[in-house]
Each structure stands twice: as C-alpha cells, then as structure tokens.
Amino acid sequence: MFTLPASIRRGARLDVVAHAVATASGKTRLIYVERRASLYRWSPAHRGGPYPLLRETAKVLGADYHALVLPCRGLPTGLAIVDAEPAYGEPADAWTVLEFDSAQPVDLVRTRLRAALALVLT
After folding, report:
1. Which of 15, 38, 45, 65 is close enough to 30 for a disulfide, judged by CB 3.0 to 4.6 Å?
2. Phi/psi of residue 45, nearest 5 degrees
3. Where does the pLDDT of residue 3 fall: very low under 50, low under 70, confident under 90, or very high at 90 and above?
4. How far apart are CA 14 and CA 11, in angstroms?
5. Which of 48, 3, 6, 1 is nearest to 23 (CA)?
6. pLDDT grade for 1, boundaries at 50, 70 and 90
7. For residues 95 and 1, what is the distance between their CA atoms, to the nearest angstrom?
C-alpha cells in the first residue's frame, strides 16, 4: 500500500511514486520527482515559495495546512519543493519537474517518469 506523505518525504519504488504522482496530478500542476539509484521521491512544486507550497501540499494531501510542518528547499529553477526528511547529503542522481493539466493514469505517469529521469542528470 502506498501513502502520499511517505513517498513525498522518503524514497520509494517507481510504482509507488508513479501511483502517488498520478493521484496528485489532478490536484496540482507542477510535480518534482527525483531518482536516487533505484528509489524515487516526489513533491508538489510551487513558484511562490514555502507558504504557497505548504498550501498546495495540504490541498494534494487533503489536509488542513495549519496542521502541517514541512521541510522545504528551493530548486535552481526557483521552484520550492518539500525536502526529504531526513535530508539527503548527496544530490539526486536525476530530477525533473513535470507539468500536468489534468489527472493522468498511472501507466502514463510511470512512462513519463522513466523517460524524464533516465535523461536528466544533475
């Protein structure tokens, strides 16, 4: 079984993250995904900084944003993302930000993740 919060904060198998991203794709437009060896992690991403990211993440999780405390960091692109906890010392092997206009099926998300993270290196 997968949970959205767990796969935001810790690495998980590709199938777990693909399912989480597919679920979130109908609720948020920008989604960050990273790969570290065979583990993947995702996060909502926001151009407005930590506070809008907090509200966006709460919307995705179906939670009250007043009840959340999220570690966050900025990407070189200027987007804010939820950081892993505990924070990783080394950079990800690959990362990308995917844009979604609507909810996407898991198979399509899995294919997009494989393609994007096989080509993008930091």
Report:
1. 45
2. -130, 145
3. low
4. 9
5. 3
6. very low
7. 24
